[in-house]
Amino acid sequence: MYLWRSLAVGVLVLVVVGGCSTDSEVSTAPTASPSATGPVSASDEPTIVSPTSAAPTEPPTVTIAVAGDVHFEGVLRERLDDPASALLTATAALAEADLAIVNLETSVGVGGRREPGKRYTFQAPPTAFKALAASGIDVVTMANNHALDFGRTPLPATFRAIRAARSHRPSLAVVGLGKNAEAAFRPAIVERKGVSVAVLGASTAGSDPTADSTAQWPATDTRAGTADAIDPRRLLRAVRQANRDADIVVVFMHWGMQGESCADDVQRTLAARLVRSGADIVVGSHSHTLQGDGRLGRSYVAYGLGNYVWYTPGSSPTGVLTLSTRPPTDPAHPAAHARVTRAVWSPALIGTDGLPTPAIAPEREDFANDRARLRACSDLRSP
């Protein structure tokens, strides 16, 4: 609920009530305490609040770490025999951040029937959420083209498993999947350091002709499913509302074309609309390879984060992108964007165990060169 801006607005109200300052006199000089209200007067005279001592310093920086696709197929399945340690060796860079977000690219639950005609179908047992919670993940998006690989039958078990995992880690949230469209598009709003961060998940994977059809999976007003944004109007409304309710808005998209390293026109157009609607950070997955990251207008976009915990080892690079982010500082302009002050990749490669392994020196150099190339082909500016 605009926690940081609410604090700043409260300070300005105190300044106005004191009647000693014009807008041009308000200072953001460092103070001993952002909540200081000036000296206490023992007389009947009104207390004069000094804007220099009352105005907050720089807003706190929140680190937001994002990674790409996670599932528990193949060699990864046995790791769920011990969910408490299943991903601990793979998530250090995520757990170090104030907020960690990934895409869970699988159906979760029991029962159901494989979607007919799908080339790849994934299903993990309910302990998948416990594994994510134990590893330090805060928000999981399930708006993707595998969340309903076994239809809607497993969904009651999915929702029960989410509730069970939250009993161990109350901060765990799942977005992009819900009992109806309202729930699927509802953001998770998480508070860190007095700053509220809204996270939404949505998918346009149904528009990818190389992917299996997802036309039957979107949530509706009366049916459970994923947050589908092929028609983006509902998503854009949700982003605008989130921008009113939170200090920082993150949108995790499942979009683009599988195997393509450069963002396509659909991604670029939607990214621009999300930024105009109030998204401060837009990240994505689905291509199963890295795509460009950098600045788009006032916001930060990472079109494709690649695979992260995946059953196929190989040369495709992966990693964790950590974004140091400050909320808007000017309460007079509630539509102002948060500011990403630093963007740092922790490069990795997926090993034979399906887990990311930190890249070594030559691989890190290749990663940096690829990153520059991918940014250029996606028309993003350097961080």
Automatic annotation (TrEMBL):
Keyword terms of this UniProt record: Signal
Would you indicate the residue range of the signal peptide?
1-22
What are the Capsule synthesis protein CapA domain coordinates in residue numbering? Answer: 63-312
- Give a Pfam family name: PGA_cap
Q: Where is this region: Disordered?
A: 23-58, 204-224
Under CDD domains, the record lists: MPP_CapA
Q: Where is composition skewed (Low complexity) in this entry?
A: 49-58
What SUPFAM superfamilies has UniProt attached to this entry? Answer: Metallo-dependent phosphatases
Q: Sorted alphabetically, which Gene3D superfamilies does this protein's record hold?
A: 3.60.21.10
Superkingdom to which the source organism belongs: Bacteria
Do you know which InterPro entries this protein is assigned to? Capsule_synth_CapA, CW_Biosynth-Accessory, Metallo-depent_PP-like
Please indicate if the UniProt record lists Signal as a keyword: yes
Q: Where is the composition biased (Polar residues)?
A: 23-40, 204-219
Q: Does the keyword Signal apply?
A: yes
Which protein family is named in the record? Belongs to the CapA family.
Protein name in UniProt = CapA family protein
Species: Nocardioides agariphilus
